[in-house]
Amino acid sequence: MGSLQEHTILVNKICEIYHKISSLQTLKPSKDVDTLFTQLVLTCIPPSSIIISHLPNHIQEIRSKLVRLCGEAEAHLEAHFSTLLATFSNPLHHLHLFPYYSNYLKLSRVEYDILSQHYPADQTGPPKRIAFVGSGPMPLTSIVLASYHLKETTFHNYDIDPLANSMACRLVSSDPDLSQRMIFHTSDILDVSDELKEYDVIFMAALVGMDVDEKVKVVQHLAKYMAPGSILMLRSAHGARAFLYPVVEPQDLQGFKVLSVFHPVDDVINSVVITRKDPYPITSKIDHDHDHDHELEMGSIVPSSCKYCDFQMFNNPLNQVSMIEELAIDE
Length: 331
Known about the structure:
Blueprint: H1 4-22, H2 31-44, H3 57-85, H4 101-118, E1 129-133, H5 140-149, E2 154-159, H6 162-172, H7 178-181, E3 182-186, E4 201-204, H8 212-225, E5 231-236, E6 256-262, E7 271-277, E8 309-314, E9 324-329
Parallel strand pairs: 1-2, 1-4, 2-3, 4-5
Antiparallel strand pairs: 5-7, 6-7, 6-9, 8-9
Helix pairs in contact: 1-2, 1-3, 3-6, 4-5
């Protein structure tokens, strides 16, 4: 979908849904809330060439408000299902009740595949310690990675909300394996410093930093304290999906080398950005002329601060995931 008329129809539809959502008295799960957010997601999922930064200011303001509303609704949804799952003797046996569980299976598989490609070859075995920032009341990424892909890794989950951590802890407490490998920290990540050097990989949830300034502040903090050469993985959004989640651009990632950017084309909403902590001191300016011979051919997809991008394919066997495209950056 690329014409101006098509973009106008898309934006008008999204704005119409936004006004309905913003008039709701609560965003806790209900028939009205579920219906409106389902309509919003289905409207934003189809691939679109729309570029958020090119839209008028008032549309960008609506988009910023909508992203925050989506974040609030997602928090309520996770809290609701975390509470529900905690009523079972073994909550992890009933994760399929969460409506987006299959999406987490797909996304976690993609993230594991991408991480496996870029994790330092000189390391013996998979990452030993991973941190997830913004884990929430249902830390599904950590649970899925720990259960299916990284079965010997310890996961340290950080969330600023003590209630969210308490709910998350209840989900894994009855599992003899994950209860030992899933650790929960109630902290503002900006208050965590030297501990960050201990992690081989840090995941940053999509809703950590609801706008560019907030997200950059967190990224700069991680760049200051993470170990040189360690991996930072972030979730972003592309096309119309940027009306659902914040966008991470490579120029927002000073102190890190962008290794790969993946944009899904199926019902998985989030894009994935994998980076490596720069072993050199952070500078205040990105060197846009570095490796000038690798000019980007697809600037509308990945900003020009990236190196040349080509397409690679991943075959995701888990949950019958179809072949999907990764925008991989040549090193």
